[in-house]
Write a structure and sequence with these properties.
Elements lengths: L2 H34 L15 H9 L7 H19 L3 H22 L10 H18 L2 H14 L15 H35 L2
Helix pairs in contact: 1-3, 2-4, 3-5, 4-5, 4-7, 5-6, 5-7
Amino acid sequence: MGTSETRAITRELKLHAALLGGVVALLWAIEILDFTVFRGSLDTLGIRPRTIPGLVGIALAPWLHGGFAHLAANTVPLVALGWLILLRRTSDLVLVTLLSALVGGLGVWLIGSSSSVHIGASGVIFGYFGFLLLRGWFERSLLAIALSLVVGFVYGGMIWGVLPTQVGISWEGHLFGFLGGVLAARLVGGRLRAQAAGAGGRSMSRR
């Protein structure tokens, strides 16, 4: 590996660290502010199913958490799964995050209990999980398949989180966030698969 390649990898890793570190820092800053200044009242800005104000919560809910324990539980998988997505391409993380938050939020708004308020980044985390788990299926490359298998082996137990097994846990957010990640996997993996097929076809025509 040459010096230029080493520098490129170093720059890429620094970008990953800055991006994920910035998101985590913002999440913790919001929770500290909510605890010290707003006394937990920011949590009321989450998704309120089938209400007009609750639609605003779709954008706000991933940034809000019900205490430091809740945020701490989400921080590690958010960073770990987010970094695995960044290993391929930074733009993939942006797409997966947006689709997971949007699909997850709309799903919660549509079918969540009318008396509930949904907050937390777990819907986005399940979106990351769904994206990584199914990308191999849609992309059909050895690297994507290998990464899907690793994620399935290490984080496969997360799949039970899409079921209504625990009181007070937003399984709706988990389920629809996961589906948002699967949608992103289909979009990204399908496009890369088509590009690979097109490149193969062009190379054959030149022979």
